[in-house]
Amino acid sequence: MVPPVLLLWISIVCLFTGRSFAATIPTSTAPPAVLAPPPFKSPAVSSTSFDPTALKWDSVAQHLKANEGQASVDFSFHFTNSWTNAVTIRSTQTSCGCTVARLPKTPWIISPGESGEIAGTMNLAGKSGTVTKSITVLLDGGSSLLMVTVDIPAPSTEKMREGNRQRNLAVAGADRQAIFRGDCANCHVAPTVGKKGRELYNTACGICHDAAHKASMVPALRELNHPVDYDYWLTWIQNGKINSLMPAFDLKQGGILDQAQMESIAEFLDGPEFIKRTIRSSLPLVPSTK
Hints:
Elements: H1 4-17, E1 55-57, E2 61-65, E3 72-81, E4 87-94, E5 99-102, E6 108-110, E7 115-123, E8 129-139, E9 142-152, H2 157-174, H3 185-188, H4 197-204, H5 206-209, H6 230-239, H7 259-269, H8 278-281
Parallel strand pairs: 2-9
Antiparallel strand pairs: 1-3, 3-7, 4-6, 4-8, 5-7, 8-9
């Protein structure tokens, strides 16, 4: 409430000044003005903040070609610190354990203007075609990504076959019956099923004895220099030879042929079709006892 004396005084002032009576009445109910906050300003960037392009690389991606049979390939990336401050390389990370990138020391501090090299090796064992691996160089304040791509030729079929053959010979040398088991069974067991005579010989015997690249210790049956007959062939087929690559084919000794199959091979070997070989045809034969 405004006191009566003050109202009288205001009325007199308004009379002489011409001002509105309402405009002169003070009020105290209006809320105080709210001041808006000042606009946000991002802090100034320090001139010493890390420069992600500080290291200038001669190349960040390399495409290499390997030779057939090459076990590994080496690569290297060269760089220069073009920044005004030193750059610290903490470590490297590769996308696969087959690839290794080497640092001379960690941490590795690169002064302004200094150059360096990051070298590494990719293991190519079991790989063919185009293979790409990445190397991440971890820096204080950032990182650099490097890529290595290698074209790896597939091994030739002949070399693969020779490699498998040498491994099989080593296995057979330790256990002559091993050719009837595991992967060897694909060539020495499966093709013989249900066969007899000449056809069985080709799949069970000729695969080794008539092979173009047979092992030196495997005799060429068509070139033996001593007399042979039906019993000779049957004995070898049944029992093989201990401490050699010749297995026992008899089912009773861990082989794969029954009696009828073994006899059919012996008959083929002692017959006129197989007898047509240079050396044997000139040698006297032991009479057959079959």
